[in-house]
Amino acid sequence: MLKKLLLSTALSAAVATAAFAQSPSTPSSSTPSSSDPAPAAQSQPAAQSQGSGKPSFVSSQKPDQWLASKFKGTDVLGSDNQKIGDVTDILFDKTGKVEAFVVGVGGFLGIGSKEVALAPNSFDVVPGQNGSADKLKLTVTKDQLNNAQTFARYEPPRPTGTTGAGSPMGGGMKPSGSTPSTNR
Description:
By secondary structure, the chain is α+β, with helices and mostly antiparallel strands. The protein contains three helices and six strands, in the order ααββββββα. The longest helix has 21 residues, at about 1-20.
């Protein structure tokens, strides 16, 4: 089921890219005329016409598709079929391709836990029993997951602050009372 999810995501991205590549891109200074070639002949590479295509609407969810809102929190089982964590987040690139599932492991009620990220092909989907939700299974133990490298979330660089108009002393306003008054 997970492989079908990934395949459908990749297929959706491919279809969207093809749709963007086939949309006509005419310069704003010229008007279309009857002598212009057909839109298919005018197709531009996807990188140039990105964002200029018509939207591709999806009318409903299929049985083999998962919503991210329902996927987060999915139990992750270890090789011994015991719960070793749950999905806390999904990492995907700018094209929509799922790169990893972030799994929270260790700790108790979220305290002392850490996150590790694993590629989607690391998991097998285990159907839920008695109407319960599907689960994900790994071929590793809880100890191996606890010893795995912690997933580091991206932190954008913070802007370096300047205080004032570039003066070497920091510039800006000085606290009142820091400079003795000379006009008394």
